[in-house]
Amino acid sequence: VPNEVVRPELDNLKAAVLAEDPIAAELAMEAIHLLPTRS
């Protein structure tokens, strides 16, 4: 299930945003986009 793969990345992104760390947030977003998409 793709959601189970994306969830950790979303948690990392959320944590980065809450920590006001734009660089980490950007890296998390890139990691999400780099994940293989399975339909």
From TrEMBL:
Protein name, per record: GntR family transcriptional regulator
Organism taxonomic ancestry: Bacteria, Bacillati, Actinomycetota, Actinomycetes, Micrococcales
